[in-house]
Amino acid sequence: MLSKKYNARRIAHFIHGFFGLKLMLLLTVVLLSGTLAVIAEEIDWLIYDEIRVTPVGDRLNEGLLFDKIKEAYPKIGLSAFNTANDRTHTAASAMLTLPDGGFRNAWIDPYTGEVKGDTPLLSVGNFISFLHASLYLPVIGRSLVNAFGVFCLVSLITGLISYRYFWRGFFQLPRWKRGPRVYLSDLHKLVGLWSLWFVLIIGVSGSWWFYQNPLERYFGVPKLTPSYLTEPVVDHGDLSRLGPNTPIRASAEDVVTAVKTEHPDFEIHMLNPPDHNGLLYKVRGSYGDFLVSRTNSVIYVNPYTGKVVENRPASDWNGMQRFDAAMRPLHYGSWANSGVADLLVKLIWFLFGFALTGMSISGVMIYYKRTFKARNKNLPQPSYGRKLKKLWLILRPWGGSMSGFKYVNVLFVAGILAGCGIAYTLGSQGTVGSGFVYQKQAIGPWTLSFNAVAGLLEKDLPPIRAGRRTTLNATIEAGDASQIKFMYARVGKPRTTRAPGDVIHGPLGMQHANLKIPESLKDSAELWITIEDWSGQFYQSSWSLMPNGKETRDL
To answer: Contact 419/456 with Cβ under 8 angstroms?
Structure first.
């Protein structure tokens, strides 16, 4: 039995206050950014003229729209075409990878086919969404945000335990005549009770993602979600039969037409062209399944013949996979998908998210109101000494609502601000000027250069670390890129062309490999690039893996 001094209600109250007070600044950032992220798409729609359209007649073929954007932006990498089929007044879009390394979104009117222009990738809405997802903190950002999902769940449970006879409080109005502290306390409880369902959704989804990242990803705990089927690829025999010359790919319009012919009830939401010549065209969309993302169902199309190869609807998933897929639409309130219902659900999520943010702030205000008299009792009479003591009470590493955690909060907020600066730099110039540069060399009829970075937000960290993977970006300086069948990267010379390394993939301007670095590295380690052309001939060249002041430099 717990003593009266340390009964379950008191312990629960302590835990509830600990999570709400010690990390209040970070918690407020996560909650407020999450609240705004719910309506991030609508925020961008209001700000940028390029996104808004007026419905006129029927929508054009989604593939034709993608082809038109390609014509408008020649020799620029395009990826992830969003059809906006569930948004009657929103333009379709594709992400651009600019020659100088930056990223933008290009927009096209789905009714007229008019290319309306482009906007920054890091738009206002996207900035808020990325902030909520990662806090712009390298390596630990996503894990930290997910941890707050666990905090929400713990706060929900401990709040109910510490609030005796809580079910009586659903219809008790705050006592505003009893002073600010009592009013705030009553309001905090009332809002908390009516937000129980919402906090439960946020807590469960956040805790689920915390289990996946960092527990599954970094600590090796058992995986709860069964692995999804390996994506189909272009059959090796089919590739060989294409002949020694560069094959002509089917247009995006032909791909979409083939999908609509075989699957007329499939609503197309995204087009993903192949990242390299051995992959299939992915057409993502929905069959109207409830509580899954509108891009979870995938139809694979051969990019050379334009024929449908395989259909993988979300309805074929098992229970755990469906549970995993349901977390995102539940967390962000996007499960109504389109129309007035979608906007209504988002507004409900926004209001309750705003209420949850207010609860985080009101908890601190209640604490300060509760301790106001005790603090002022020990202060000297109004003077400079009183002001200095007040300042000391704020800055000292013990006492107060945050105690020593105030420095943790400030440190993380400073890291978030620095990360925001890095993110804006990435949006305008990519990773140019970071990591290791492998100077341009001739490999057969092509001239290439490479740039190794630890990651996007991690671009200022050392790119080559033993036992880790690094992002190796490829730039084709000269030569016809379409004549390259496959390009590979490997640390150390390949023993055979049957195992030449990691495939370099991605759209033009964003071709890269997730290069595996060996556990042990020698000073003489080399980066080897292998290229196979359509006739089956191989070309190879190498660079020093680590900077040597010659062909490899540290920027």
So the answer is: no
How far apart are alpha carbons 457 and 550 in whole angstroms? Answer: 27
554 strand-pairing partners: 436
- 103 forms bridges with which residues in the sheet? 97
User: Mind listing the pLDDT tens digit for each residue in 438-496?
Assistant: 999 999 999 999 999 988 777 778 899 999 999 999 999 999 999 999 999 999 999 99
Cα distance between residue 495 and residue 2, in whole Å? 67
Q: Which residues share a beta bridge with 533? A: 484
The burial of 31, by beta-carbon neighbours within 10 Å (0-12 exposed, 13-18 middle, 19 or more buried), is given as buried
Phi-psi region of 157 (alpha: psi -120 to 50; beta: other; left: phi over 0): alpha
Distance CA 451, CA 439 (A): 9
Token pair belonging to 111:
């009714």
As a whole number of angstroms, the distance between CA 506 and CA 95 comes to: 12
CB distance 122 to 409 below 8 Å = no
Q: Kindly state the tokens that stand for 324.
A: 């995993």
What percentage of the chain's residues is helix, strand, coil (to nearest 5)? 45, 20, 35
Asked if the model's pLDDT at residue 2 lies above 60, the reply is no
pLDDT tens per residue across span 193-207: 999 999 999 999 999
3-class secondary-structure state, position 34: helix
pTM assigned to the model: 0.89
What count of other Cβ atoms lies within 10 Å of the Cβ of residue 427?
A: 18
206 vs 213: CA distance, rounded Å: 10
Tokens of 124: 């206002």
What tokens does 198 get?
Answer: 């919402």
CA distance 159 to 15: 9
Contact 511, 474 (CB under 8 A): yes
For residues 348 and 333, give the distance between their C-alpha atoms in angstroms, rounded to a whole number.
8
Coil/strand/helix, residue 124:
helix
The three-state secondary structure class of 478 is strand
Alpha-carbon gap, residue 421 to 16, rounded angstroms: 34
> Could you count the other beta carbons within 10 Å of the beta carbon of residue 251?
16
Return the half-sphere exposure (C-beta side, CA atoms, 13 A cut-off) of residue 31: 24
Question: Beta partners for 267?
Answer: 286
Q: How far apart are CA 220 and CA 216, in angstroms?
A: 5
Give yes or no for a contact between 500 and 494, defined as CB atoms under 8 angstroms apart.
Answer: yes
